[in-house]
């Protein structure tokens, strides 16, 4: 390699990643939550639900990206740090060829499944069927580009060119809401939503290609075509565990919407998706907070010091839980008025269903966090097996419980499958860290539990349509009260002091 990897600041690269991750998260929240009322001015709730149901079903059946880019980035980073042109080129070209093959496979299977996705929906409007069919096909083309741009992104990440990589990603994501808005204003309907995915993905590839070529010229000294079957097989071997975990993640993200649209109605599917997004938005921030502790976790696992490991795990889980439950509490306390102000609609479900959805998302988020902790220890196999068992259990329970519990079976299936998976994964983490099982599951205090219960109780009695100003005042008041109550928690203050000292 022309430039040694030690010349590049790895800390700076990590900070750039964190900064852009939060920026990207913010744009995704704007696109998936705040712009929904605008979307519904140009399409019915049923149309929106049909779109969400179709893509959710496709995502479950088709695994968009099995994790080639993650493995490739790891392999290329190692080669770059060792200044090995041969290995660096070999892994890049091998992973790029695999990505191309997977993209072609995605296109082929996707177009075969497109018509079946429409057949699953009880959709009588023929004009809308034609429009939805067009949107689905554009979406399939869009997701077929994911493996390709992911490999190009991993090339930049391996060279620690995080600013260039994240800038490209951010620019493309920012275009999405503009594309959708312009499309809707030009009467493209559901097709606008598909274009909002396709155009950013295409922009990514258009921007990545010249940057990758320039960096190739800059860093790679011996430029040869170095595709290797052995490297491709090695990448494939590494992918299998990531594949299982990713299948579980995609199933968990999409199953409620898909099942609701197929077995109930597209309107219910849309509302479930909207409600779930509110809690998932909180998850994005809570997971981001926890990510900052992963480095200390990796170090603690490597030195095999149980005391420091327990401390690192406790801080990771607690910081995640604090942000997630506090954000969830605010939503629960104001969800009725919030939905009314936001969508000009009453709650589609009773409050117990909302509570179950909140618990479902929280447990799944905690399960993903625990998976990451176990992943950090190097136990990839256990994570993969637990993930696949959890997803199969979730699918089975969903089918069984919607028969006996109707719509309530959807969040209940998620709650039960997450709890069962957590029991097993907590045991494994406990064996490695020596920590207390209960403290791993809930590292907070009883005082904080009272606060969360208070928020839920407020939400139960605070669902009336009292007008915009009154609802807005109530939401602000609840937020202020919860915040004031929470700062009296000794553990919260201790965590805050730790963060302050670190920053100082």
N-to-C CA distance: 38 Å
The largest sheet, given as strand count, sense and whether it forms a barrel, is:
none
Helicity range: over 70%
Counting DSSP H or I runs of 4 or more residues, the number of helices is 20
Low-confidence stretches: 3-8
Instruction: Tell me the total number of β-strands.
Output: 0
**Tally of discrete structural domains:** 2
Q: What portion of residues belong to β-strands?
A: under 5%
- Structural class computed from helices and strand pairing: mainly alpha
Order of helices and strands: HHHHHHHHHHHHHHHHHHHH
Q: Which overall shape is indicated by the principal axes computed on the Cα atoms?
A: globular
Element layout with pairings:
Blueprint: H1 10-34, H2 36-39, H3 45-61, H4 68-81, H5 85-119, H6 126-144, H7 146-158, H8 162-185, H9 190-219, H10 229-263, H11 266-291, H12 294-303, H13 306-343, H14 351-376, H15 380-405, H16 409-433, H17 437-441, H18 446-461, H19 468-486, H20 490-503
Helix pairs in contact: 1-8, 1-11, 3-5, 3-6, 3-10, 3-11, 4-5, 4-7, 4-10, 5-6, 5-7, 5-10, 6-9, 7-9, 8-9, 10-11, 10-15, 11-13, 11-14, 12-13, 13-14, 13-18, 13-19, 14-15, 14-16, 15-16, 18-19
């Amino acid at each position: 390699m022309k430039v040694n990897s030690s010349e590049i600041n790895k800390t700076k690269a990590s900070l750039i990643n964190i900064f852009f991750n939060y920026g990207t998260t913010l744009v995704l929240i704007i696109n998936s939550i705040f712009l929904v009322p605008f979307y519904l001015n140009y399409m019915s709730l049923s149309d929106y639900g049909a779109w969400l149901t179709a893509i959710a079903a496709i995502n479950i059946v088709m695994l968009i990206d099995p994790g080639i880019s993650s493995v490739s980035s790891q392999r290329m980073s190692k080669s770059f740090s060792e200044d090995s042109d041969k290995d660096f080129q070999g892994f890049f070209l091998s992973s790029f060829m695999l990505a191309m093959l997977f993209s072609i496979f995605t296109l082929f299977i996707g177009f075969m499944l497109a018509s079946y996705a429409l057949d699953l929906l009880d959709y009588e409007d023929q004009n809308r069927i034609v429009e939805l069919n067009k949107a689905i096909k554009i979406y399939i083309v869009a997701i077929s580009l994911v493996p390709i741009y992911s490999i190009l992104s991993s090339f930049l990440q391996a060279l620690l060119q995080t600013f260039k990589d994240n800038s490209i990603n951010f620019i493309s994501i920012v275009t999405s809401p503009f594309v959708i808005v312009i499309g809707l204003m030009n009467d493209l309907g559901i097709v606008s939503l598909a274009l909002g995915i396709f155009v950013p993905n295409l922009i990514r590839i258009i921007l990545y290609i010249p940057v990758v070529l320039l960096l190739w010229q800059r860093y790679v000294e011996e430029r040869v075509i170095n595709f290797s079957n052995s490297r491709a097989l090695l990448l494939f071997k590494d992918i299998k565990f990531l594949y299982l975990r990713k299948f579980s993640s995609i199933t968990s993200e999409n199953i409620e919407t898909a099942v609701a649209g197929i077995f109930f109605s597209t309107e219910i599917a849309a509302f479930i998706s909207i409600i779930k997004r509110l809690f998932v938005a909180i998850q994005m921030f809570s997971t981001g907070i926890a990510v900052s502790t992963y480095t200390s976790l990796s170090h603690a696992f490597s030195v095999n010091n149980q005391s420091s490991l327990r401390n690192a795990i406790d801080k990771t889980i607690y910081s995640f839980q604090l942000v997630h439950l506090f954000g969830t509490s605010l939503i629960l306390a104001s969800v009725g008025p919030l939905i009314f102000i936001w969508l000009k609609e009453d709650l589609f479900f009773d409050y117990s269903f909302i509570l179950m959805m909140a618990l479902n998302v929280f447990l799944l988020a905690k399960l993903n966090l625990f998976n990451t902790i176990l992943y950090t220890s190097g136990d990839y196999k256990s994570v993969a097996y637990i993930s696949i068992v959890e997803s199969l259990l979730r699918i089975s329970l969903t089918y069984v419980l919607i028969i006996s519990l109707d719509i309530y079976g959807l969040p209940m299936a998620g709650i039960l499958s997450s709890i069962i998976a957590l029991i097993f994964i907590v045991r494994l983490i406990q064996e490695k860290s020596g920590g207390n099982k209960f403290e791993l599951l809930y590292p907070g205090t009883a005082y904080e539990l009272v606060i969360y219960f208070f928020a839920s109780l407020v939400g139960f009695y605070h669902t009336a349509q009292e007008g915009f100003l009154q609802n807005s005042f109530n939401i602000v008041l609840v937020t202020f009260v919860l915040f004031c109550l929470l700062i009296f928690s000794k553990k919260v203050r201790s965590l805050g002091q730790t963060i302050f000292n670190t920053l100082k």
